[in-house]
Write a structure and sequence with these properties.
The protein is an alpha+beta fold. The protein is built from 24 helices and 22 strands.
């Protein structure tokens, strides 16, 4: 891949990562991985200025305002911070500022890992709270939710006509653990980390959830104040504290680089013991007049940087190694660890992936292992402290037989992974059921891992089709209390019934065919338009579909050649599941809007943003979060905002919301 291809690829990938992080509260990669990708994009854009775009992720903050909440126009930008990863980069930053302001002083503070928000007080009362949104134009109105932050003052004691402050809303670890335990118990969504749970909670339409989940906040900046003035940031924060606001604790004022380094290292020493998550330390100019003179780029202020700590590493005891069987039969060894607090959550398990990894690490039960976390989410075993290895330790080896059904394990495609070849293996069936009901596939609310396991063990479901026969067991399900009482059972059965109307790609992805994930399933359904045509397609016909290679095509042919799988599809047909693509026009290029880039802005009538996105993607379009020269259409609803202005400036075709149906039919 040359540099120009890499630049285009990075822009597209970072847009997807921004959408997942800011809008869905579901990060795909670690913060450090994201920062390195963004830095590489910045390098490539600097090397190729002729390809610079205003909508590039290197220039934009990253988020959008949700269509489910009332939007707020931002009168001041809520920018991000420039990330740095070494002290040398900090010294470059401070030396450049000292060149202009020799007497400059700096503050060093914790970088709270939460959701950035603005709070407006008028005549002493809280009148507005909003999320950062896109950072420049629009945020989300969450005032009612903010009033349920237990320590946020609804009024302030001084007669201040207008006060606008910025802070970070976060979820303390204790509240996070409690929430996830409750979610898991009820079969609901388990959050990846406290930041995602805070962001998801503050955007809830039910404001009582904010209070119940114990969110808190810290204020770190005065954006605007009438009737008061301050020479320094630290002076202003001290005043806010006197009004009853929670401000960032332990802020250090530093004159020299050695003092800055000492302050950063002091935060690092205590960060694992803090009751909330931080993902770095912020170094800022303290003098407000200097800040005003320096200003900001379109994305970051020129007077501050955020130092990112390297991933936290700890040691813990590997108590045992368990072998798990996945939905495809893949055998995965899992390390059971003595619980250890790492990067904000308690870790007690870590995947060892396969026998080759175990051999390369030479990891054994009883070892003291070195543990890290990728992006504060996924725990990894980095190695073994051999000085602490027991004298009687023994090499651990992968089993020869499936630990569940006893079948002889086998290798596939010359890989190092082992597989159980039995399609009737109970572990595989259970895993397939869980995958089928999961959000990326059929998205059946309430049918999470714990509920599936309970229903499977009790004999209610043995195949995918059995899920749709659960309605026949309503009374016994209610009386058994297996998944809850009457209301919960009825909600589950209704969610199952609703899933029958899902677009075909979800069903195809949920079948768990090897190499056929959601993206490939979309391409297949766009091309063939029905499950019947997909199941009877030849190798040559399958290879004409974008993203389908020989391995994927062979997997499809093998799957549909098995009698039991063909019977399953007939079961689905008889049970009333949708087996057709939602786009009725069969076109060889994969959809009437294939290869078209579309951006949505504003409210699209009664449809949610996700519903509109599904319809456009079903027609082959690629739905993007920001307008660029490559955008083909801007779909504009009510209150379109800055995206409409940008589209008009670039000459992008604007389609009104009322013409969505025409766009989907290819009439525009």
């Amino acid at each position: 891949m040359d540099e120009l291809q890499e630049l285009r690829h990075l822009r597209k990938y970072l847009e997807e990562l921004n959408h997942a992080y800011y809008d869905l509260d579901a990060p795909i990669v670690s913060d450090m991985e994201y920062d390195l990708l963004l830095r590489r994009l910045e390098e490539l854009e600097a090397a190729h200025p002729e390809l610079a775009e205003e909508a590039s992720p290197a220039r934009e903050v990253g988020g959008t305002a949700s269509s489910n909440l009332k939007r707020v126009e931002l009168w001041k930008p809520l920018l991000s911070l420039q990330d740095v990863f070494s002290y040398e980069e900090i010294w470059t930053f401070t030396s450049e500022l000292r060149y202009q302001y020799p007497a400059a002083r700096f503050t060093v503070e914790e970088k709270i890992d939460g959701l950035s928000m603005g709070f407006l007080y008028e005549n002493g009362c809280l009148t507005l709270a909003h999320t950062r949104g896109d950072g420049h134009h629009f945020g989300e109105n969450v005032t009612d939710n903010a009033r349920n932050l237990w320590d946020l003052p609804e009024s302030i004691p001084e007669d201040i006509k207008r006060l606008y402050v910025r802070g970070e809303v976060y979820m303390p670890y204790e509240a996070f653990y409690k929430l996830n335990a409750e979610q898991e118990k009820q079969g609901g969504r388990v959050f990846a980390n406290p930041r995602n749970s805070a962001a998801g909670t503050i955007r809830q339409l039910d404001s009582n959830l904010v209070k119940a989940r114990g969110l808190s906040y810290f204020i770190f900046d005065i954006m605007e104040v009438e009737g008061r003035s301050f020479a320094t940031d630290s002076e202003g924060l001290t005043w806010l504290q006197s009004l009853g606001f929670q401000v960032l604790p332990g802020i250090k004022i530093c004159q020299t680089d050695s003092e800055i380094q000492a302050a950063i290292e002091a935060i690092n020493k205590v960060r694992s013991d803090l009751p909330y998550g931080i993902d770095g330390a912020v170094v800022k100019l303290d003098d407000l007049s200097y800040r005003e003179a320096l200003g900001a780029t379109t994305k970051v202020p020129r007077w501050a940087v955020a130092y990112k700590y390297p991933p936290e590493i700890k040691e813990t005891l590997l108590e045992s190694i368990e072998v798990q069987v996945g939905r495809t039969g893949k055998i995965t060894p899992l390390a059971h660890l003595s619980p250890v607090l790492l990067s904000g959550s308690t870790v007690s398990r870590a995947s060892l992936h396969n026998g080759a990894i175990i051999s390369s690490l030479d990891v054994r039960p009883g070892d003291t292992v070195i543990l890290s976390k990728s992006g504060d989410i996924i725990p990894h075993i980095l190695g073994v402290n051999l000085d602490k290895r027991p004298s009687d330790s023994k090499v651990w080896e992968m089993p020869e037989h499936c630990p569940v059904c006893g079948s002889l394990l086998e290798n596939r495609d010359d890989s190092v992974d082992l597989y159980c070849p039995s399609s009737s293996c109970p572990a595989q069936i259970s895993a397939r059921l869980i995958y089928f009901a999961s959000k990326p596939c059929m998205d059946i609310m309430g049918l999470g891992e714990q509920t599936v396991e309970s229903l499977f063990q009790a004999g209610y479901i043995h195949s995918l089709a059995d899920i749709y026969r659960l309605k026949d067991s309503r009374e016994t399900l209610i009386s058994s209390g297996l998944v809850g009482r009457e209301k919960r059972v009825d909600n589950l059965l209704q969610a199952i019934e609703n899933s029958k109307e899902n677009d075909l790609w979800r069903l195809l992805a949920g079948l768990g065919i090897r190499h056929i994930g959601p993206a490939t399933a979309r391409n297949l359904t766009r091309h063939f338009q029905s499950l019947d045509k997909i199941s009877t397609a030849s190798l040559e016909e399958l290879l004409q579909v974008p993203d389908i290679g020989e391995e994927s095509a062979s997997s499809l042919l093998n799957y549909f050649s098995e009698e039991t799988n063909r019977e399953l599809l007939e079961d689905f047909r008889g049970l009333g599941l949708n087996l057709e693509a939602r786009t009725t026009d069969e076109v060889s290029n994969g959809g009437l809007l294939a290869h078209k880039s579309i951006v949505i802005t504003g409210s699209i009538g009664e449809l949610s943003r996700s519903e509109v996105t599904k319809q456009l993607e079903a027609a082959g379009a690629q739905v993007k979060s920001s307008v660029s020269k490559k955008t083909d259409y801007l779909l504009a609803g009510e209150d379109p905002g800055s995206k409409l202005r940008k589209a008009e400036e670039l000459g992008i075709k604007v389609v009104e919301a009322k013409d969505l149906a025409k766009l989907l039919r290819g009439e525009l």
